[in-house]
Amino acid sequence: MQSSGSPKTPDRRAVVGHDQSVYIDRLCSLVAASSPLMDALRAVRSLELASWCIGAGAIRSLVWDSLHGFFEPSPVADIDVAYFDADASPELDIRLQHRLSCLLVGLNWEVTNQAKVHEWLVDASGQAFPPLISLADGLATWPEFATCVGVYLDANDSVRVIAPYGLDDLFELRVRHNPRRVSVATFWDRVRSKRYSQRWPRLTICSP
Question: Could you give the C-alpha distances from 156 to 45, 93, 188, in angstroms and in order?
Answer without folding.
Answer: 11, 26, 40
